[in-house]
Design brief:
Helix content is 26%, strand content 20%. By secondary structure, the chain is an alpha/beta fold. It folds into 2 domains: 313 residues, TIM Barrel, CATH 3.20.20; 85 residues, Immunoglobulin-like. It binds alpha-D-glucopyranose.
Length: 433
Amino acid sequence: MSDRPVRESPGDRSWFVRDRFGMFIHWGLYALPARHEWVKNQEEIPDEVYQRYFDRFDPDLYDPGVWADAAAGAGMRYFVVTSKHHEGFCLWDSALTDYKVTRTPYGRDLLGPMVDAFRSRGMRVGFYHSLIDWHHPDFVIDDIHPQRNHPEREAMNRTRDQSRYVEYLHGQVRELLTRFGRIDVLWCDFSYPGRGRDGKGRDQWDSPRLYRTIRELQPRVLLNDRMDLDDGWDIKTPEQWQPQGWIEVDGMPVTWEACQTFSGSWGYHRDEASWKSVGQLIRMLADTVSKGGNLLLNVGPTGRGELDHRALERLRGIGAWMRRHGRSIYGCTQAPAEFAVPQDCRLTWNPDTRRLYVHVFAWPFRHLHLRGYRGKVAYAQLLSDASEVAVTGLSDHQARMERAGPDDLVLELPVQQPDAEVSVIELFLTGAR
Ligand code: GLC
């Protein structure tokens, strides 16, 4: 559906670039300390102390149907959940460990019901699986491990056998890719070869073999880019920053997905306050699609099993916008270069319907200039209510005053922004439907 040729890879990107918007879910024991999913690392907490969260993990209010409804209501079309994060805790009943939800007071699988709930609402399914494991006894202690400053670090490492950990890692990925039906996205996180002592990358994960296993079990799964392989990936995944344009590798545009948080943490963080506003999040989504990318927006559910009320509020705000403006997101991508981006705007483009969407990030005073658009626009309307927007040229005098050229068009806008956080003007091009 993209107009631009994009780097080829085996994963199925056809649904992905159409759906554009997904929910990331970071959930694990770290929901209980409620102060960042890296808390075990940041506070250098030993296993014996971290055990207190395992012993009390009991999300009694967990209802994945409610989560899936919140995601669908926000206009999200897929989800990616942490099957295991760096702390090593598993959300499913893995045969390869006891460090899993079925051994906590909760005592039941979390992942299966979640997959069913989201799938039954038409959403695609993804797993985030941590390559890193701060609980497994064979994982060699490195510079980002909670025990990095332990006086016995080297002695402890002598009994650790990374190759046994690799078997565990590969075995768990096999479980994830065989027990839950078709998996659409797999997110392996992350590699840091050469970073400090015992930093880890393809050799420490045996990434080439892991890659072969993944492709053998789920040939069309979309794989992220964090296994430290030059070739074995489908999507690039910028995190906590927005690229300036379509992401390229070796001069070739690639399939990409920005992953972002509502606030400064991925896991539930009770006291963190840097929550983005609904408007900011909508602009982030439009900005992403205007550069040919997807947005994966993260929620960190609580230890009781509910989505954070601050996230819910924002999901509802985004949903209200998406209900009327989804047409400028789904099936859309970066506009062809012939269409100049108007001031303070982002453009998205649906190559099938050949409609152009002007996302107005800052409402101007009366005139929105479309440079060089003369002859290209047959009709314009506000997307929210299908009300006509006049498309005109300017008188010679006015054009001189406003420094418009003979090929420019002007959208005549009301002085007050009539709606929405981000207003969108839908342009029907000449010669198109
Ligand atoms: C990073 C972090 C992590 C988060 C992830 C999301 O790699 O380690 O906590 O899960 O990014 O992209």
